Amino acid sequence: MAQQQFTAEENKVLHKMFIRSHLVFMNFNMVKMEANGFTATMNPAIDSIYKDDPEGAKEARHRHQNFFNTHAVPFAFIAGLCYAMEKEHKEKGSIDGTTIESIKAALMGPTAGMFDSLFFNCLRIIASGIAIGFASQGSLLGAFLFILLYGVPQDIVRYFFIRIGYTYGTSFIDSVFNSGLMAALTKAASVMGLMMIGAMTATMVSVPLNLVININGAETNIGDVFNSIFPNLLGCVLLFVLVSLIKKGKRPTQLVAGILVVALLGALIGIF
Length: 272
Hints:
Layout: H1 8-20, H2 35-49, H3 54-63, H4 72-91, H5 97-135, H6 141-178, H7 182-204, E1 212-215, E2 218-221, H8 222-229, H9 233-247, H10 252-268
Antiparallel strand pairs: 1-2
Helix pairs in contact: 1-2, 1-6, 2-3, 2-4, 4-5, 4-6, 5-6, 5-7
């Protein structure tokens, strides 16, 4: 992938996006996680693509404020891909906002799992093992070695990934659209995105119900009964209740506050 493949404007935008991709954890929170960092990374692309369309720019920023979470390295690849898709959306109209969101959501889980294993569970351990050897001897070289072995490779990969995402994103979208597979891809991406949400719900949402009732002298934990019927059933029910409330116009901050109040009251009376 040669640098001259990009126009001066594209190079400028991609460079700004690479710099801003270091803001991946900007205003990180448990409601949207990396959404703020992703929107900040996408801002140069949005400003370039929608410079004469304030309403389109507003919609694009709103689109990228949805929940997003992945490893910091593929974060850059997905940002480059979204740059290509936003450009396609604006210039040709061959891809809609829903498809952009679906493809973005579908890539979260697989890329996070792959690069968490590669960087967190492999490279980080190796870099730490080497760095600790020096640090335990009181040498500052240990800190610098960790940055060199763990931080620098991520930055190098991220630099190329944002360009690969943009390059292959454009050609990929063109080929898929021309072959008539866009509808199938959109549906597949939507299904994958829903699967990722389901998987995250099962692993990240927990309702530790500790209500015990006495039946004929035997104590029965209601939470265990629910889990025996459907593992993490209460977490799934909570998810659908929250989605329903959001659709009715409730703000996520209100729901988080409500959950905290219910959790505290439940803990005080021994339900949780």
